[in-house]
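Researcher: Here's the sequence for the chain we discussed earlier.
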Amino acid sequence: MRAHSGQVRISVGDVRALRFDDGTPVTAASAVAPLGDGWLVAQDDSTSAAWLRDGSVTPLRLLPPVEGHDRFSEAAGTKRLKPDLEVACPAEVDGEPAVLLLGSGSTARRTRGVLVRAHDGRPVAAELGPLYALVARRLGLDDGQLNLEGASRHGGTVRWFNRGNLAAGVRPGSVDVPLAALVDAVLDRTDAASVPVEQPRVYDLGEVAGVGLAVTDAVALPDGRLLLSAAAEDTPNAVDDGPVVAAALVLVEGDDVLDVAAVPEVDGRVPKVEGLAVRSVRDGAVHLLAVVDDDDPTRPSTALELHVDLG
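Model: Thanks. This is the structure I predict for it:
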């Protein structure tokens, strides 16, 4: 990784393999957000999420089956069908806490939004294709270049991140979208095409071993800065998986990248962090819950406790 200020230092605390209470693995963990007294973990290869509460992990259906399938994989020939929910962002519905989940938009099947309310865990879903088309236009992206994998909440605004792929000539980028308008679009209270999409940005995160770092999630810090999770994944496009040569956290202020720090290996493997949530911030340190997708349907996803010293 290229040199920055070196102010960010990362250490790994608790490491937990995620399994449902019946022993089946939580796979393809792609995002995490607080929900009620626990955490909701999206699985990008499934129509259900995993709800972590009091040592228990239970499935929570988000969407109906797609052509009879609830799980999707390359091996089964069903990957093209998956909703690919990649974002989980804290939200409110009529004053009640909720989580907003969003598809990646990397294909026309992946443009759905889902709201889950904390009080009953009941999901509401909507097709948001016109909004995704507007985001792509605002970022100046061609067909096949959109891949919205992360979001951070800033008060009433969601900063929505396009992953980017330097091999395809696409730098990571973001747009700002009003949270209330997003919620209304999912609840069918407003037209998805009318949701404002503002402040397009691009970021230069650098590369590792010739592979560009690309955004997989983001969280806002109390002082207005951002922490991005990023992966250097050697893939030619927004759909196919590839080998991950490095993972990092990136400290951003405004449009400026302040520092890039490698996430330590876990059990000799590069942890492809795809979801971040803030547990606490105190004394210049951020405590994060991170979820890792190994791109292997036979392996349970991992939850990591990350301690981030901002210097």
